[in-house]
Specification:
By secondary structure, the chain is mostly beta strands. The protein is built from no helices and twelve strands. Strands 3, 4, 5, 6, 7, 8, 10 and 11 form an eight-stranded antiparallel beta sheet that branches. A four-stranded antiparallel beta sheet has the order 2-1-12-9, with no helix packed on it. The two termini are 19 Å apart. This is DUF1850 domain-containing protein.
Length: 137
């Protein structure tokens, strides 16, 4: 199992890490007010985008050329997952909160940071390292 770590950018805030191999980000587009989501898998120290979807096109949210309409969503799965070392996610005053979904639990992204739910600093997501267990020494 991998670790997904969540912290505030440029702040001395304790980082929260959660065991998971994948996660989903969900939000409403600030102009179109329609749904958008991205699914990621953790691979070593990388976050890999494996699927993205939008409910409609417009205002900078065009479906990818390979997107297929599935249950009202334009879903795209890249042939090669896009890998990044971290995501930096600012909030917008024009949308509701971005949600982080782990397994079947979706919560506002900032609610994963105990005591910092009202901060306006961008949130940073990255893959953490598993601590060695006593058996690994």
């Amino acid at each position: 199992m991998s670790l997904l770590c969540i912290g505030l950018l440029a702040a001395a805030v304790e980082i929260q890490c959660v065991e998971t191999d994948d996660f989903t980000l969900r939000w409403q587009h600030s102009v179109e007010h329609s749904g958008w989501y991205e699914e990621y898998q953790l691979s070593g120290q990388q976050l890999q985008l494996v699927e993205s979807a939008v409910q409609q096109s417009g205002a900078g949210m065009e479906p990818a050329p390979d997107a297929r309409l599935i249950d009202g969503w334009w879903v795209s799965r890249p042939a090669t997952p896009l890998s990044v070392p971290e995501l930096v996610l600012p909030d917008s005053a024009f949308t509701g909160p971005m949600h982080l979904c782990l397994q079947e639990t979706c919560q506002p992204l900032r609610s994963w940071l105990t005591g910092h739910e009202n901060s306006t600093a961008p949130v940073r997501l990255f893959a953490g390292e598993q601590p060695l267990s006593q058996d690994d020494h």
